[in-house]
Amino acid sequence: MPVFALETEQEEWAGRLRALAVDRLRPLAEKGEPGRVNRPLLAALGELGLLERLFGSGALELCLLRESLAYGCTEAETALALQGLGAHPVLTAGNAAQQERWLPAVRQGTAVAAFALSEPGAGSDAAALALRAEPDGGGWRLSGEKRWISNAPEADFYTVFARTGEAAGARGVTAFLVPADRPGLTGEPLDMLSPHPIGSLAFDRVPVGPEDLLGEPGRGFAVAMNTLNLFRPSVGAFAVGMARAALDAALAHTARREAFGGVLGDLQAVAHRIAEMATRTEAARLLVYAAAGAYDRGSPEVPRRAAMAKLLATETAQYVVDHAVQLHGAHALQRGHLLEHLYREVRAPRIYEGASEVQRTVIARELYRDAAGAAGVAGVAR
Questions:
Q1: pLDDT digits (tens, 9 = 90+) for 156-183
Q2: Dihedral, CA atoms, 52, 110, 88, 158, nearest 10 degrees?
Q3: Per-residue pLDDT tens for 20-39?
Q4: Whether residue 153 has a cis bond before it, omega within 30° of 0
Q5: Are 115 and 149 in contact (CB under 8 A)?
Q6: At 144, phi and psi to the nearest 5?
Q7: How far is CA 301 from CA 153, 223, 260, 307, in A?
Q8: Rounded to whole angstroms, what are the CA distances from 83 to 42, 189, 204, 226, 314?
Q9: How high is the pLDDT of residue 378?
Q10: How far is CA 164 from CA 128, 212, 216, 222, 258, in A?
Q11: Average pLDDT over the chain, rounded to an integer
Q12: Are 2 and 52 in contact (CB under 8 A)?
């Protein structure tokens, strides 16, 4: 197994990003309305060249970018990641006209992208989606509903996955690029625990044509999975950034908070808890980097490694933030406290882009498939 260690230049770049997130991006985030798209923040990400880096990066650099921004400003990290998630299918499967129309504006932060996969009855089971694409002349009409869609209903365009009926399950799914001003497309925001811009979309015979296709009819599920395979390790990086921020806050607090004749850090129970938080965070961080490295090498192990990275990192972040709140006591329960903010933020990644239970299913499936393959090879050898 390869050993993963960051180069000095990568560590220094990540440090600059953390400082930039605190000094430049957090003030813009604090001026925004929770649960709504923050266009000034997006524009700043574009001006700073970070959206350009998002589209020109490999998986490891994407992870460093998301981890570093999450440490200093979770809103900036989320805004950047949602641009990538919504526009990556256009980058990889879009035609020249689609790319020329939308990608420059996405990179500049002047157009908002969204990834519209989940539905009321098709969240974790993405292949079960029911949004219909009914033939209409040379094109289709989209009818149905999407829910829990990031940046909806304020996005400028949506990467939409619908059922065109070539076959059952994943084989009947087609990807479309749907501008927000198409007739029959409406939406409303959802009030979520995490302060992210998320909403629902209603499609009332929304017209799409061959020029709106992302890839080929019936091949849309592959477009979705290719996007998720890239972004799953970096969801883990988002979680690691939050865990590191919570750990540093807990370290600082327990090193100076006086109690029982000393500081909290003098208590073995507290010191051991800090040690456990730090160890789990570092383990998750290394697993995220390993998954990103596998993606950049084109390894066939990407689905398993990406699922492991997202699973461990998001579950670890929940653990670390929860214990950091406990160590702070009532201070961390006040609105506006860093840990109060992280406590609301950290819950969502265990569900977004494949819940923890789905990741465990993916991991087990890949392990059993590898074991079956190895057994078959051994049988032939005998």
A1: 999 999 998 766 666 789 999 999 999 9
A2: 180
A3: 999 999 999 999 998 899 99
A4: yes
A5: yes
A6: 145, -155
A7: 36, 18, 51, 10
A8: 9, 18, 25, 16, 21
A9: 60
A10: 13, 14, 11, 14, 64
A11: 91
A12: no
Residue in the block written with tokens 């702070």: 328
Distance, CA of 266 to CA of 264 (rounded, Å): 5
Q: Which residues are catalytic?
A: 353
What is the torsion angle, in degrees rounded to the nearest 10, for the CA atoms of residue 45, residue 49, residue 53 and residue 54?
A: 20
Is residue 4 scored above 90 in pLDDT? no
d(CA 159, CA 103) in angstroms, rounded, equals: 13
Contacts 24+ apart (CB under 8 A), 189-195: 189/35, 189/36, 189/152, 189/153, 189/154, 190/147, 190/148, 191/35, 192/35, 192/348, 193/344, 193/347, 193/348, 194/344, 194/345, 194/347, 194/348, 195/34, 195/35, 195/75, 195/344, 195/345
Amino acid at 274: I
Six-digit token string for 329: 């006591």
Both tokens of residue 250?
């807990």
Contact 250, 313 (CB under 8 A): no
Question: What amino acid is encoded at 226 in this protein?
Answer: N
Q: Which two tokens stand for residue 156?
A: 């400028």
Structure tokens that stand for 63 in this block: 């992870």
* Token pair belonging to 3: 């050993």
